């Protein structure tokens, strides 16, 4: 079988290294052993291709599994962080509620101090008025003498 000549499928392409298709050579190429060998080669190539495709599919699934696990871990971490933040926010709200009464009292004290300052200024002005009046009276009394 190794003494076969190359078969040319197109009759018009006859060159020095190609021989035109002859009916008896064509039937030689289709003997049982040659067909079995070609079938086995095709089957082996198909099996290799299928194995490679399955291997890639398995690798893709493993990658997706790894990505899913990583995403799951990130979401667990984010959930824990949000729970901690909620606890801290609750503590801050409680502290604000505790201080809000103090802040209200401070505001009341501040308003009272403003009122006391106004009263002190009014008293100071009144005392100056009285002092000036007293000085006037004293100066008129001393002038009359």
For the structure shown, list the relevant keywords.
mainly alpha, disordered N terminus, gamma-tubulin binding, 145 residues, Biogenesis of lysosome-related organelles complex 1 subunit 2, single chain
> What is the percent of helical residues?
over 70%
Which structural category do the helix and sheet elements fall into? mainly alpha
The geometry reads as: rod-shaped
Q: How do the helices and strands follow one another from N- to C-terminus? A: HH
Unreliable spans are 1-16
- The overall average pLDDT, rounded, is 84
Gyration radius over CA: 54 Å
Instruction: Note the main sheet.
Output: none
Strand content: under 5%
Distance between the termini: 163 Å
How many domains? The number is 2
Region (Disordered): 1-20
Biased composition (Low complexity): 1-17
GO molecular function: gamma-tubulin binding
GO cellular component, one term: BORC complex
Structure, briefly:
Helices cover 83% and strands 0% of the residues. It is mainly α.
Write up what this structure looks like:
With 145 residues, the chain is an all-alpha fold. It has 2 domains: 1-30, no CATH class; 33-144. Helix content is 83%, strand content 0%. It has 2 helices and no strands. The protein has helices at 23-29, 32-144. It is rod-shaped. The N and C termini lie far apart (163 Å). The model is unreliable at 1-16 (pLDDT under 50). InterPro entries: BLOC1_su2. Residues 1-20 are annotated as: Disordered. One of its GO terms (biological process) is lysosome localization. Belongs to the BLOC1S2 family.
